[in-house]
Amino acid sequence: MRPSSRTLILDAAVRVTDRQGITALTLEATAEEAGLTKGGLLYHFRTREDLLLAIQRHLVQGWEERLLAELGRPWTQASPTERGAAYVRVMMRGEVRHADLAFMVEAESNPDLARIWDELMERWAPTPQSPDPRALDLFLARLAADGLWLFNATPGNALPEEVARALRARVAELTDGGPQAPETKGANSPVTVTKGENTPVTETKGENTPVTETKGENR
Fold it and tell me: Which end of the chain has fewer CB atoms < 10 Å from its terminal CB, N or C?
């Protein structure tokens, strides 16, 4: 399906910002990038502020689509842990545009714009509200993934591929792991029991292994 004129304009605005920064994003520059007259652009966006708001929603929609594709089902059908792990995997993949960072920073100074991003984060990577170890591991993974994405989105930064791959593996341990199960005793494990009054008895049990008991009063 052919993109709508509105979508073409928004994509053009993102490209301008990606190349030249957000200060270079004007209605004229966007119209030229989109192959439209300024009048054609003004039909959809009357002011630069209208354009900026639409771009923020456009970018968030793109993130939502990538996260849903990673999750593989509607977010309402997934647990918070599953949504959080999908978020971490997408962020660690390193799909970075400088424009995303520029618009995120721009949103911080405008409550209406910030709310758009806050709603996305609340769905996919909320701040933990309890010291549950699994939630803390996932939050640590999110902080690491956000940090790596920010590093990659900053011009001039780059990591060797083997380092990036090792970082992804380390963070994956936090999203795939969790509290370890208690250690269980198997064959040939020493077991200490108490028999009789104040009499410790040590038994060593294993397959085809005799049981030795040492008994003594008050020993």
Answer: N
Is 25:16 a contact under the CB 8 Å cutoff?
yes
**Looking at residue 143, what is its pLDDT?**
96
Top CATH class of 52-176 equals mainly alpha
Mean pLDDT for the stretch of residues 81-110: 90
Q: What are the backbone angles phi and psi of residue 123, rounded to the nearest 5°? A: -75, -40
Q: Does the pLDDT at position 199 exceed 50?
A: no
How many of the other CB atoms lie within 10 Å of CB of 124? Answer: 25
Please state, in angstroms and rounded to a whole number, the distance separating the CA atoms of residues 67 and 186: 43
What are the boundaries of each domain within the chain?
1-46, 52-176
Cβ atoms of 107 and 116 closer than 8 Å? yes
The DSSP output letter for 130 is S
| Topology of the domain covering 1-46 | Arc Repressor Mutant, subunit A (1.10.10)
Structure tokens at 43: 């039909």
Whether the model pTM is above 0.85: no
Q: Report the mean per-residue pLDDT for the chain.
A: 83
